[in-house]
Structures are given as C-alpha cells and as structure tokens.
Amino acid sequence: MYEQILEDAIFGMLYAVVTVLAALGCVYLLFRRGNAFAADVTPPLRLRRWAAAFLAVIALGHVWYLPGTMMADGEAVERWTLIGGLLDCLLTIPVALAVMLCMLQDKRRPLCPVWLAVAPLVIMMGVNIANRSDALLPWMQGYILLAVIGFTVYMVREVRQYGRWLRDNYADLEHKEVWQSLLVLAVIMFLIVYYVTCYGSITYQYIIQASDLLLIGHLLWRVETLQDLNLPISSENIVVADATPIDDSDAMDTMIATEETEEADASLSVRNNIGPLLRQHCEEPQLYLQYDLTLTQLAQALGTNRTYLSMYFSRQGTTYNSYINDLRIRHFECLYRDAVTAGRDVTAQELATQSGYRSYRTFSLAFRQRKGQSVTAWMNEEGA
To answer: Model pTM greater than 0.85?
Structure first.
C-alpha cells in the first residue's frame, strides 16, 4: 500500500513538473524579447509562435486529463478520456507537425494539409464519443501508423533538401542546419505511436512524461538557436564589381524564352564571366574571409545575380558552401606555413578565426572533410 502511495506521489510530481515547464516555456517564447540560449541569434518568429502553441497544448492537455484520474464513475472517466483524445487529434498532433514544418526556411510550406490529414481522426473520434465507445480505435490506430510513416518519409526528404539549399546559399551553417529536427521528429512520432498503441499502463504514463520533458527542453533550445534566414541581408563591406550587372529582370526574361535558349545563354554567361569575376572580386581581395557571406552577397559583389552564380557552382560539381570553405582552408594552410617559417607559436583556433570561421568546431569538421585528417595531425606533419 505504501509503495503504491509513494509511486503515485512520484508520478504526480513528475506530471506537475511537465505541466509547469510546458506552461513556462510557452510564456517565455511568447513574451521574452531577448534570447537566453544564444544572444547573437534571432529565431524565426513563425517558429517561435508555433512552438509556444505546442507547449501550451501540452500544458492544457495535462490539465484536462487530471480530473479524469479523480473520477469514481468508470463511464464518466471513459467519456472524459475520449474527449481528451479528440482534443489531441484536433490540436496536439497537427500543432506538433506544424512546428516541424516551420523549422525549414527554404520556402514557406502551407500548414492547411496538416489539418486535412488529421480530419479523418477527428471524425472517427467524434463518432466514438457520440456512441460512447472505442469501436473505431483499431481503424484510428492503423490510420495513425500509416500517417506517421508517410510524414516521417516526407520530413526526412525535406530536411535533406533543406540541407542542400543551405549549402547552395550560405558559407556558414552555424545556427542554420536543422538535422537536429529529426530528433524532435523521432520523439514526436514515438509519442504519437506509443499513445495509440500502449495507452493505460503506469509504465506508459512514466515514459510519456519523460519524453515530454526531453521534448520541451530540446524544442526550447532548437527554437532559440535557429537563425531566422528571412531577415534582410546586410551588404556591409561588400564592394560591387564594375562589371555590367545582370539584374533579376534579365533572369526573368531568360526564363520566359525557350528552354534551349535559356540553357545556351546561361552556359555562355557562366563560361565567360563567372570564373574570372570570382578570382577578381572574391579570391584576390579575400572576400571569402567575411563571416556569413551569402550567395546573394557574393553575386552582388560580382555584379551578377544569384541564379547564374548558383548555376556556375552546379556546373563545377560543387556547392557555394564547399567553394568558400575550400578557400578558407587554403588560407588557413598559408597562415600556418607562414607562422612555421617565421618561428611564431600559433594555435589552430586563432588561425581558424583569421580564416573566416566563427566556430572552431565548424572549421574542424570542414577541414577533416576536405583533407581526410584532423587539424592537429595535419599541423604535426607540416611542422615536422
């Protein structure tokens, strides 16, 4: 008897902690103007609001289910639980999926299909409530499992596409990549599947609360450390080339022409202009050392547009991110060799900063990817 009371007390405290943390997280995201996790990062407002809505739904859901644990009438408990399930289908599941979609900033994905996808669940749960039974539960479970598989496949594909878009447009990926979103996706999908297949046991209750704690903490960190990529791009320190600019209206005129003409004109522009312009306005003045240099900014410096510049990198079999990182790593190598020749003591962190990297971890990963060995191993070989 004592063990049961103690177990209930522990679970009650865990349940209360999750509820309070979710509510506080919602208030923080809605009303705090600063950023407690990364002061130099401005998170996407759309993602911040949807994440706040998701945390509010978690807190309100916990408040809703609590009275059901105190009811003595089994029929009333069942009805209360069915209504809670309806609210979960109508709010918790679609809002969670909306948060996932809002993390991807390469394009603004519509959220209406999410609610259309859960409409069959809402209808089936409404029928269960009207009939005061869970007769349609097996159908709901099957539909949810299929939906989970479909959404997971879709998100994995979209995250990979988003990663390619980042590498094609940004030199620095700190506070931009969202592969961590797959962790949020995994937790959310686990909770949904576990919710519809294992509901009822005390083990289930503990696992759900522990997963909620993990999700709340990770979601708050992810929202606050993801840079808003829709902010206006600063052109400070960017010198525009004297070459005749190819503005976006020219690009639109080219797109209106036939496909064959577009391909030929673009190829000619790439062959005759982009390569020399890169050497003259990026490599020689070392523009690549500017932190967070974007494809758009580089195109402006070259006097061209991002469409042609992106096509150039694609034809070279590389990405914009790889191009900039190759230049930075070569710069790092030159700095280190000069330091060795002069007999100066330098650190890899110091030289990485001088080579355009704000994060040594990012530099280390890029260096290993391109050189096939660690920075330390390469420096030891060079200094021997």
So the answer is: no
